[in-house]
Design brief:
By secondary structure, the chain is of the alpha+beta class. Helices cover 47% and strands 14% of the residues. The chain has a three-stranded antiparallel β-sheet. Strand 5 and strand 6 form a beta hairpin. Helix 1 packs across helix 6, helix 6 packs parallel to helix 11 and helix 7 runs antiparallel to helix 11.
Length: 296
């Protein structure tokens, strides 16, 4: 039992590193459950007010891009060109969009900050909402379900931890409106976490994604308009066995479209049984493969 526990603890630590980045990140290695408490408050009276809005490294989630684009009255493609920079999420070697910061060196103020604070506060990115908490999802060996947990990030510049505001993780999450973001981003987070864990711990599909797969992942992550065009106006529905109700939903519902796209990416990246090829298409693919190998 001792060896098994050590293995689980090691896996957990590695996944935290994969989510937060470098090992020097000020993460407190304590798992926080929904009812656990911590002290924190961020408001204009704290002397470090808005310090974290300069030179921030913010990877935008699919829900972030939907909400921020709508807030600004632009389409996702326009939003990406104006307010983001392309990057690679190194822990999983997948392309992502990061929020553009000011200054020639990218260490200036966030584009959306002015003297009064955040100009898009009601639709701010999930990274800003979560701070100073982090979120990790892990599935240990022998477990059927994934398990979420939180951890605390304490950076030296942040004085919010010194505020007398004791609260539970659940209360903080509710105040920050995190449930809606987590629900939309769940499938996307699953992909990132699996890529990170396989990179760190190894796995049956722990290999470099193709350039085309990376391109598709970036489209799924950032541009629902391009994604809808791909799904609706190609032979996607002719190739995959998708329920009629789901087909109708993705034509107009961005969240339903993202859910389908995340399932599709899981089948492409990890060969998960989330989206199935139609039987006829599968038979033709097998026959073509046999023909290519010279089989009869």
């Amino acid at each position: 039992m001792a060896g098994e526990k050590t293995e689980e603890q090691a896996a957990e630590v590695e996944i935290i590193k994969a989510v937060r980045g470098a090992a020097s990140t000020p993460v407190l290695p304590v798992r926080l459950k929904s009812g656990d408490m911590f002290c924190f408050a961020c408001h204009r009276g704290v002397s470090c007010w808005n310090a974290c809005c300069h030179g921030a490294d913010i990877t935008l989630t699919p829900c972030d891009i939907l909400r921020m684009s709508k807030h600004l009255g632009v389409r996702p493609k326009e939003f990406l060109l104006e307010y983001t920079v392309p990057a690679i999420w190194e822990k999983g070697n997948l392309p992502v969009a990061k929020l553009k910061m000011g200054g020639a060196d990218g260490q200036g103020a966030c584009t959306f900050m002015d003297d009064d604070g955040c100009t898009i506060y009601e639709d701010r990115p999930v990274t800003c909402r979560y701070y100073p908490l982090g979120l990790a999802t892990v599935k240990m060996k022998g477990q059927e379900e994934k398990e979420d947990f939180h951890f605390l990030v304490k950076e030296t510049h942040c004085l919010g931890h010194e505020e007398d505001n004791l609260q539970t993780v659940d209360k903080f999450r509710a105040e920050q409106g995190l449930a809606d973001y987590d629900r939309v981003n769940r499938g996307w987070m699953d992909i990132l976490m699996k890529m990170a864990s396989w990179t760190v711990l190894g796995g049956p599909m722990g290999k470099e994604p193709t350039a085309q797969t990376k391109k598709m992942f970036f489209m799924v992550s950032t541009d629902v308009d391009a994604l809808r065009d791909f799904v609706v106006n190609t032979k996607f529905f002719d190739s995959y066995d998708i329920e009629p109700d789901r087909i109708e939903a993705v034509k107009t519902d961005d969240i339903a479209l993202l859910d389908l796209a995340f399932d599709w990416m899981k089948s492409v990246l990890f060969m998960e049984d989330t989206v199935k090829l139609k039987e006829k298409v599968l038979r033709e693919a097998v026959a073509q493969a046999r023909s290519n190998m010279g089989a009869t």
